[in-house]
Design goal:
The protein has 303 residues and is an alpha/beta fold. Helices cover 61% and strands 13% of the residues.
Length: 303
């Protein structure tokens, strides 16, 4: 049924109002993205330094590190903790859905290997999605994804390390959206515990370093206090920094995804306004034509 000019004009007004909102959200996301990128750039040297110090101290400690609880692998990996990093808010395209699908697939892989999966989630979207799928998170952390602090990462790390030390879990993995560019976010899966399986100590996804380089470092550094005592402080710091870095990467990815989604929504709204304007013009021309025909018919009737 053809729409009247008033109906089309009302639709154009509604779409224009939505376009104003999406443009405003795009600008807000762009501003927050710049701040998030600055935080990542500021953290990266510190995180790399902690990782390097931890690796070198473990090499200096030698076989004695096998007795440290956070470095020692459990006899069997019956329970695997999966930490899902998502956002508190939506309207960010496929940001949340892609990391959730990857986490659920990883959970299914562990279950097929006979391992039980214990879920932890950061962000309301991840918590609600896991709950909806019947995976009630043991740890739910919400309310800070727009601007995570180091205290938030420490709280998550403390819960995971306590569960690992109490033998409630035997392995900890984290799933999050890594920031590549405002247009590209990639899902990353990393091992946090045991530290011997993490990339920093030559675990999964790491690159082996030359033996002569490692020997040079051991010969050039003297530790005071002993390496074992230093590791007691470095290992928890490394876990906290790893989680904090993932939170920051996820935040930047969220703002980039939201900026892109809102830009696409604004462009689509502009195209829709153009189509509706053409439709309104056609309706107006049809009404004018109808009025002319009525005038001509009236004139012929009088003649």
């Amino acid at each position: 049924m053809p729409q009247s000019q008033r109906d089309v004009r009302n639709r154009i007004g509604s779409v224009a109002n939505i376009q104003k909102i999406t443009r405003a959200m795009e600008m807000v996301a762009a501003a927050r993205l710049r701040r998030a990128e600055q935080r990542i750039a500021a953290l990266r040297p510190y995180a790399n330094a902690i990782a390097r110090m931890t690796r070198e101290t473990v090499e200096a400690a030698g076989a004695s590190v096998l007795t440290m609880p956070l470095l020692r692998e459990h006899d069997s990996e019956r329970k695997v903790a999966m930490l899902l990093v998502s956002s508190d808010r939506g309207l960010a395209g496929a940001f949340n859905s892609q990391v959730l699908r990857a986490a659920v697939r990883s959970g299914v892989e562990h279950e097929e290997q006979g391992q039980a999966v214990v879920w932890y989630a950061s962000g309301r979207r991840g918590v609600s999605s896991l709950t909806f799928r019947g995976h009630e998170p043991r740890g739910a952390y919400v309310g800070f994804t727009d601007r995570p602090s180091y205290a938030d990462a420490r709280q998550i790390a403390d819960d995971l390390m306590s569960a690992y030390l109490d033998d409630q879990i035997d392995r900890v993995e984290i799933m999050y959206n890594g920031f590549v560019s405002p247009l590209v976010q990639e899902v990353r899966r990393e091992v946090l515990l045991p530290l011997s399986a993490a990339a920093v100590l030559g675990g999964e996804g790491s690159e082996e370093q030359p033996d002569d380089e490692a020997a040079t470092r051991r010969a050039a550094v003297e530790y005071e206090p002993e390496p074992e005592q230093l590791l007691g402080r470095l290992v928890p710091d490394f876990v906290e920094i790893s989680i904090f870095r993932a939170l920051l990467e996820s935040t930047a990815s969220e703002h980039g995804a939201r900026m892109t989604a809102m830009r696409n929504a604004s462009d689509n709204a502009g195209e829709l306004i153009t189509d509706l304007t053409l439709e309104m013009n056609r309706a107006r021309q049809a009404e004018i034509t109808q009025e002319i025909l009525e005038v001509v018919a009236g004139a012929e009737g009088l003649g």
